[in-house]
């Protein structure tokens, strides 16, 4: 079979909270909701506090009567409560519950859908604000506006919005039972994943897939097909997933220096690697192949291909 679909929505693409984007420009509503708003604290390392899969949300009372200038509005949770995020040291839960310090990239699989969405949005926005205090247009100092979803030049009124860097990630297969997996130069031995790369200016996603695979491993691909997408706020990417077909008789060539090793693996080999765990949990085993963790869309794409008969 040359075609397949994702079995599940990637973890960071799941919807758990109401983004309530209409409230970003409604100052009165934002202030009205602030008095009992929930606060998500993200520290300088991108870590949050989590209890039983749920991110710890504090109260807004300690931060004043109105949202701080550097707070970002994330939306509303099921109760209707507004949620804002700030970059700040983590504060232990007021009820004394023992919370774990976790980060989304390494342990996001432990988060429930609401927590994953809130932390992904907060991480992306706060990372952008950290790097966008001066306008890319004219170098002028800017200030946050629209609940943290834009920055504005107070003198000219020029607005800038969160930057997102689109990247493609592609499973290359032979139309049958073999798939290409590759290892970057700085990855551990046996750690393999899919091929990926950033979209260039003036380039479509599909063209990017063909170019990146040719540059990285020297293969020409055909039948490029979309699978799904996932935010990847480390610091500000959007991963757009595809699969494509290549001829396994083509030789590999590593043209851009990013990939140091690539090989064709059978479906049975991939299934065995998936059963062994991921890069972290299987590293101590004698598995010949280590695959990415469950938070990554790469894992979901590989699992969806591997389950096909």
Spell out the key features of this protein.
alpha+beta; single chain; 16 strands; Nucleoside Triphosphate Pyrophosphohydrolase; globular; 6-stranded mixed β-sheet; 2 domains; 4-stranded mixed β-sheet; EC 3.6.1.22; 309 residues; hydrolase
Please describe what this structure looks like:
The chain has 309 residues and is of the alpha+beta class. The protein folds into two domains: 11-160, Nucleoside Triphosphate Pyrophosphohydrolase; 165-306, Nucleoside Triphosphate Pyrophosphohydrolase, CATH 3.90.79.10. The protein is built from six helices and 16 strands. It has helices at 27-34, 104-107, 113-131, 205-217, 267-276, 297-306; strands at residues 38-42, 47-51, 54-55, 58-59, 72-76, 82-87, 100-103, 143-145, 150-152, 159-160, 165-173, 178-184, 195-198, 221-232, 237-246, 259-266. The strands form four sheets. Strands 11, 12, 13, 14, 15 and 16 form a six-stranded mixed sheet that branches. A hairpin with a 4-residue loop joins strand 11 and strand 12 (178-184). The longest helix is centred in the middle third of the chain and has 19 residues, at 113-131. The chain is globular, with a radius of gyration of 22 Å. The model has no long low-confidence stretch (mean pLDDT 93).
């Amino acid at each position: 079979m040359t075609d397949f679909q994702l079995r599940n929505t990637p973890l960071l693409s799941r919807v758990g909270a109401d983004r309530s984007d209409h409230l970003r420009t409604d100052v009165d509503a934002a202030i009205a909701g602030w008095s009992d708003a929930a606060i998500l604290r993200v520290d300088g390392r991108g870590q949050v506090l989590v209890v039983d899969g749920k991110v710890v949300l504090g109260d807004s009372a300690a931060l004043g009567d109105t949202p701080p200038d550097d707070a970002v509005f994330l939306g509303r949770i099921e109760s209707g409560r507004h949620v804002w995020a700030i970059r700040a040291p983590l504060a232990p839960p007021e009820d004394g519950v023992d919370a774990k310090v976790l980060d989304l990239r390494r342990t996001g699989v432990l988060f429930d859908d609401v927590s994953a969405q809130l932390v992904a949005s907060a991480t992306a926005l706060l990372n952008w604000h950290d790097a966008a205090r001066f306008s890319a247009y004219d170098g002028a100092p800017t200030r946050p506006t629209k609940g943290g979803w834009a920055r504005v030049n107070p003198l000219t009124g020029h607005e800038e919005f969160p930057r997102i860097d689109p990247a493609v990630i592609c499973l290359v297969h032979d139309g049958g039972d073999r798939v290409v997996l590759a290892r970057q130069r700085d990855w551990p031995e046996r750690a393999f994943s899919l091929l990926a790369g950033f979209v260039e200016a003036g380039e479509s996603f599909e063209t990017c897939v063909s170019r990146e695979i040719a540059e990285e491993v020297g293969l020409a691909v055909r039948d490029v097909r979309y699978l799904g997408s996932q935010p990847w706020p480390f610091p500000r990417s959007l991963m757009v997933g595809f699969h494509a077909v290549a001829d396994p008789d083509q030789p590999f060539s590593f043209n851009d220096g990013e990939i140091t090793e690539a090989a064709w693996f059978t479906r049975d080999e991939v299934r065995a690697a998936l059963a062994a765990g991921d890069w972290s949990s299987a590293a101590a085993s004698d598995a010949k192949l280590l695959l990415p963790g469950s938070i990554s869309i790469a894992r979901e794409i590989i699992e969806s291909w591997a389950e096909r008969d």
